[in-house]
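Whiteboard transcription, Tuesday session. T.W. wrote the structure tokens on the left side:
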């Protein structure tokens, strides 16, 4: 148990540094790393991918709360826009988790690998995902939130890649869109985690110290160190140009996606 906690703590340092350096949510870093780690630990192949996603989502609860609090202190969360989206997220994230566990691990892994590869292309060529601006309304936001929560829960991410463009297109400034998106990561993580725990309860192939598809040692080790390491990654980012950071991040995504296609 201690050896595993130490291993996951080291992984948390890596994940936190990368997340802070590139300004991305931890899920895109944590999921691929956990997949490889769980394989090396000898976990059943049928649960590796789902457990990596469930554990990564659980980690985002802590990093998401920290990030949301920081943005709230700066007044960059628009709660009028947040509330209806968060309402949709609670349903979507839960359903996304329950849906994901019905998909074979190999298909899910390849889907995540493809998503990461496409994100690399988006960053490398600076492709803007924001659509045409539209008028904000509650019904549309609840539906958008359910979709954001659904796909984020399947991919094991905090949803910023979906929610930031949505909030920006709904008329918020980029700073407020990022802050409000950070707040949305919390309900995604909480209800996604509930879904992955519920879906995996009672399965015989689960390792010791797991709660459904959430592996507690991974959540504990990664969460504690990644929160602190992210600060140093953010400090390091100030020494590099935006162009250099984009190239490094795109390269990281390409390497990780290729690894996930092959592993």
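and on the right, the sequence the group agreed on:
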């Amino acid at each position: 148990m201690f050896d595993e906690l130490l291993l996951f703590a080291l992984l948390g340092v890596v994940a936190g540094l990368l997340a802070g350096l590139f300004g991305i949510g931890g899920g895109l870093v944590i999921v691929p790393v956990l997949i490889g780690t769980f394989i090396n630990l000898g976990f059943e192949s049928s649960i590796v991918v789902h457990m990596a996603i469930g554990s990564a989502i659980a980690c985002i609860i802590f990093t998401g709360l920290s990030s949301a609090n920081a943005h709230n202190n700066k007044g960059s969360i628009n709660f009028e826009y947040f509330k209806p989206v968060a309402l949709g997220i609670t349903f979507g994230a839960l359903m996304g988790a329950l849906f994901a566990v019905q998909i074979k691990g190999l298909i899910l892994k390849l889907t995540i690998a493809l998503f990461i590869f496409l994100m690399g292309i988006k960053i490398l060529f600076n492709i803007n995902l924001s659509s045409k601006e539209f008028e904000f309304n509650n019904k549309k936001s609840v539906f958008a939130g359910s979709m954001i929560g659904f796909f984020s829960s399947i991919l094991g991410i905090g949803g910023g890649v979906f929610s930031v463009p949505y909030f920006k297109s709904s008329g918020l400034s980029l700073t407020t869109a990022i802050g409000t998106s950070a707040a949305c990561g919390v309900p995604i993580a909480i209800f996604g985690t509930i879904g992955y725990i519920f879906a995996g309860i009672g399965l015989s192939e689960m390792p010791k110290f797991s709660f459904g598809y959430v592996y507690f040692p991974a959540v504990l080790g990664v969460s504690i160190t990644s929160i602190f390491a992210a600060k140093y990654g953010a400090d390091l980012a100030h020494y590099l140009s935006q162009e250099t950071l984009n190239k490094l991040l795109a390269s990281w995504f390409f390497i990780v996606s290729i690894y996930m296609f092959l592993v």
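Someone added at the bottom: The mean pLDDT is 87.
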